[in-house]
Amino acid sequence: MHLxxxxxxxxxxxxxxxxxxxxxxxxxxxxxxxxxxxxRELRVHVSHLLS
Length: 51
Fold this sequence. Notes:
The chain is mostly helical. It has 4 helices and no strands. The longest helix is centred in the C-terminal third of the chain and has 11 residues.
Protein backbone atom coordinates (compact mmCIF):
# COMPACT_ATOMS: atom_id res chain seq x y z
CA MET A 1 0.00 0.00 0.00
CA HIS A 2 1.35 3.42 -0.89
CA LEU A 3 -0.28 6.64 0.25
CA UNK A 4 1.12 10.14 0.35
CA UNK A 5 1.27 10.53 4.13
CA UNK A 6 4.47 11.63 5.79
CA UNK A 7 5.29 10.18 9.17
CA UNK A 8 4.83 13.66 10.60
CA UNK A 9 1.37 14.08 9.06
CA UNK A 10 0.20 10.65 10.16
CA UNK A 11 1.49 11.39 13.66
CA UNK A 12 -0.51 14.63 13.73
CA UNK A 13 -3.68 12.91 12.54
CA UNK A 14 -3.43 10.01 14.98
CA UNK A 15 -2.01 11.85 17.98
CA UNK A 16 0.94 9.45 18.10
CA UNK A 17 4.60 10.42 18.22
CA UNK A 18 6.48 10.37 14.92
CA UNK A 19 8.92 7.90 16.48
CA UNK A 20 6.00 5.52 17.11
CA UNK A 21 4.91 5.77 13.48
CA UNK A 22 8.49 5.18 12.37
CA UNK A 23 8.94 2.14 14.64
CA UNK A 24 5.73 0.58 13.32
CA UNK A 25 6.66 1.34 9.71
CA UNK A 26 9.99 -0.43 10.10
CA UNK A 27 8.41 -3.52 11.65
CA UNK A 28 8.95 -2.81 15.31
CA UNK A 29 6.57 -3.66 18.12
CA UNK A 30 3.23 -1.94 18.10
CA UNK A 31 0.12 -1.76 20.22
CA UNK A 32 -3.18 -2.73 18.66
CA UNK A 33 -4.60 0.62 19.78
CA UNK A 34 -1.93 2.40 17.72
CA UNK A 35 -2.63 0.24 14.70
CA UNK A 36 -6.35 0.95 15.00
CA UNK A 37 -5.69 4.70 15.06
CA UNK A 38 -3.49 4.46 11.99
CA UNK A 39 -5.94 2.24 10.12
CA ARG A 40 -8.76 4.67 10.84
CA GLU A 41 -6.82 7.62 9.43
CA LEU A 42 -5.68 5.64 6.37
CA ARG A 43 -9.25 4.34 5.93
CA VAL A 44 -8.14 0.73 5.70
CA HIS A 45 -8.90 -2.37 7.75
CA VAL A 46 -6.26 -3.00 10.40
CA SER A 47 -5.46 -6.34 8.70
CA HIS A 48 -3.93 -4.38 5.79
CA LEU A 49 -1.34 -3.00 8.18
CA LEU A 50 -0.37 -6.48 9.31
CA SER A 51 0.21 -8.05 5.91
